[in-house]
Every structure is written in C-alpha cells, then in structure tokens.
Amino acid sequence: MVHGRHGGGHDIPDALLHQPGPLSEAQWSVMREHPAIGHRILAGVPALLEAAQIVLAHEERFDGTGYPRGLKGEAIPLWARLFAVIDALDAMTSERPYRRAQSFDAARREIVGACGTQFDPAAIEAFLAEEVTLRAMVDEKCMDASAVSAI
What we know:
The chain is mainly α. The protein has a single domain, classed as Orthogonal Bundle (Hypothetical protein af1432), CATH 1.10.3210. Helix content is 55%, strand content 0%. It contains eight helices and no strands. It has helices spanning 14-17, 25-31, 34-43, 49-57, 78-92, 104-113, 121-129, 131-149. Helix 5 (78-92) packs across helix 7 (121-129). The radius of gyration is 16 Å and the shape is globular.
C-alpha cells in the first residue's frame, strides 16, 4: 500500500493510529473498517451521499486488490479513484508516529510507480497535470507543520 494508515480518527482506536511500529494482522483488520465507518457517518447527511460513496471506495485499488469491496477499474467511482491519489499524497507527505514525512518528489515517484495497480492511469494523468499546484500545497502544509512544531 502506497500511503499507510490514516483511519480517519472516527471509531478507530487512537492506539492504532499512533502506534509507532507495524500493525498486526488483527490491528489491520480494524483499520480496514475506516471506509465503512466514514461512509456510515457521511451517509446520514443527505447532501453528503456522493461524498459517502467516495469515502467508502477510496481504499479500493485499480487492480481489484483493495478494500472493502474489492472493486476493480471502472467499478470504482471516478471521484474515489481521484481522491485515492490525493489521499496517498497527503499521507505520504505527512509526519506519522511510525515514519517520517516523504518529500513531494519521493511521494510522486511512489504514486506514479503504482499507476495501473493501486491507481487509475487517468487519475495519475490528472495528478501529473496538476503537479505544480499539488507541490505548492504540500510545501505549504509542510511549512504550516514546521511552524506548529516550533511553538
């Protein structure tokens, strides 16, 4: 998996989200519930039904090996395929208790390397088309994180 754990924070124990080392298979089983948990939260708000579908499908992989439903290719909603790339970029360029943040360039290489397996080639094409904007957003996020950690 390109980006690691993020859990969304709702109904996922903090101990799993902040564990400094690898998760056990039982702990990963709990983490794999986060798309369904997020979907359930958002689906309760009629205006967020489309967002709920994106959340439910954002851990699906283009090659069909993702979760929770094992959707493949075009069966994954387009917005979820796009969001999966941005979610991975954010996770990879953010500090985590179990690893340091990656540079934009390192994350870009890993994301592009997962084209056709984890990520839809069309989503990768969109990612590359918006690289300048996304790089600036990551740089701004990293500057904001540095400012907070300096306090």
